């Protein structure tokens, strides 16, 4: 038998404090949990992207090209920077409208077995009439402290209040 709890409010069941566009600050960081990239990550990315180049799935081909193991696609590193993997969408709540732009430089390899450390940092806040644009620097470092991806992305955010 269920019990109705009138003190429970589903709208108040949030993972972190919400912020409006005006409460965000340049320099706010949103660290994304680290993850070690395994065979399943390579398989899932290959299935989703349909990229069938052997550098991403043929160990002997990789070794013949001078790589120690499978080489991840640049986009495989980029997807680690999805804002939804961080607390940012929870901070923005219903104000988040969508992802509108991105650019990235792939500075180093992402190999099978590497541990990736993605992060987002607010670098610009542009207020518009009814919305705002949040510009984020996105980075991925590996376990050797090498910066393997550096870029930016923009989110469109509704101005509240």
From TrEMBL:
Ranges of residues in domain MaoC-like: 33-141
Source organism, top-level taxon: Bacteria
InterPro entries noted in UniProt: HotDog_dom_sf, MaoC-like_dom, MCH/BMMD
Protein name: MaoC family dehydratase
Upper classification of the organism: Bacteria, Pseudomonadati, Pseudomonadota, Alphaproteobacteria, Rhodobacterales
């Amino acid at each position: 038998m269920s019990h109705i709890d009138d003190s429970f409010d589903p709208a108040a069941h949030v993972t972190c404090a919400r912020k409006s566009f005006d409460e965000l600050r340049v320099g706010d960081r949103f660290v994304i949990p680290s993850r070690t990239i395994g065979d399943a990550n390579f398989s899932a990315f290959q299935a989703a992207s349909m990229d069938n180049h052997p550098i991403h799935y043929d160990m002997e081909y990789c070794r013949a090209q001078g790589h120690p193991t499978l080489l991840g696609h640049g986009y495989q590193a980029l997807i680690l920077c999805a804002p939804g993997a961080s607390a940012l969408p929870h901070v923005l709540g219903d104000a988040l409208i969508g992802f509108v732009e991105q650019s990235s430089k792939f500075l180093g390899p992402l190999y099978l077995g590497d541990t990736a450390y993605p992060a987002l940092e607010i670098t610009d806040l542009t207020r518009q009439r009814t919305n705002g644009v949040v510009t984020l620097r996105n980075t991925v470092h590996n376990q050797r402290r090498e910066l393997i991806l550096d870029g930016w992305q923009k989110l469109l955010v509704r101005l509240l209040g």
